[in-house]
Predict the 3D structure of the following.
Amino acid sequence: MIAAAELMLPSLQAAAEARAAGRPFALAQLGQSLDGRIATATGHSHYINGVEAIALLHRLRACVDAVVVGAGTAQADDPRLTVRRCAGTNPARVLIDRRRRAGSALRMLADDGVRRLVVGPPRDADPPGVEYLAPPGGDGPIAPAILLAALAERGLGVVLVEGGALTVSQFLAAGALSRLCVLVAPLIIGSGPVGLALPAIDRLDAAIRPPATVAMLADGDVVFDCDLCAPPA
């Protein structure tokens, strides 16, 4: 078993190398149960993963320029998206909310000296200093590659797509991710929303089979650090 404080996943190294070289890089993380659930049927999700997995998530945040979440996650969890459980600098915070249904009184939009960007229109109640991006794709589905390019133009080339499951699934389906970190808790929920939902395939030949580094954290969660750029193992 490996403590998160001692774990150096290839994703952390790849993100740091991309940042140093000025290369665009996107990774995503997803926490789920053994049966692939991210919450109960009522939406309760705090906390599926243990403290070591949460510490690892903070290390991922510390290695990127920006962290991205969708409106559903922002509204349900009101995350801070800061680095608190390890040393490091808080990344910029990006909210994908084309219809602004998550509102303005979110902790991730608070004016704390960190850049905050909204992929969507401004609202009068937004805190000072929020930046806005036109939703790539217009009224249709978000175009992840275009969004990542727009962030890179603003100096945010190394990005963590943190949630929720729909947003991670959209980026994965679009081929916009370099790495995917899945944190699996020794927990069976039995019902509720699933982590990844991609377009249907007919045969397993078409399944994504990325090479992965696998490690067990000290409190039982298993980490799958998947390289989506490498040839299948």
The chain has one domain: 4-196+208-227. The mean pLDDT is 91.
